[in-house]
Amino acid sequence: MIFIDATNLFYRLRAAKLRLAKGGMLRLAQTLNGFRRTLRAYAYTSEPEFKKAQAQHDAGFTDGVRLVFGDAILKGDGNYKEKGVDALLVADLVYHAAVKNIDFAVVVSADTDFVQALRRVEDFGCRTAVIGVCDPLPQRLADAADHSIVIATTTLIEKNLATATE
Fold first, then answer.
1. What is the full DSSP assignment across 67-104?
2. Are 43 and 84 in contact (CB under 8 A)?
3. Does 35 have pLDDT greater than 70?
């Protein structure tokens, strides 16, 4: 099962000036899944962040991925602050490991808030992997998983997962 911190991914792709191709989110997340069958892929974000991403990426960029929306709280400056998005990812990750729905979990994020969740999932006998996109993973996060990989900007383009926007 794959758990994508979509907001984190959107920020990284925006900074790298990349546009995900149709189905690109799922194919990117399957990089560390190897020959395992993907039971399901979830992407966690808020509706305002998803709307921004829809304007940036190709139609169908989330094909094959189940979207899970957390709350978005309007701030005084007109921007939104996400609430509960990471908690939703952690809850699903730990739940599926605890009830033995999965034996291998892939988390797509560079957020060190997931370190403890990865350790808890391993307590249930689940193997773990972390995928970073465009930038190095924090060492703490990479060390918390059984496997880690960073997918470089050039790799995303070469594998037709994304195109440069400029």
1. EEEEEEEEPTTS-EEEESHHHHHHHHHHHHHHTTS-SE
2. no
3. no
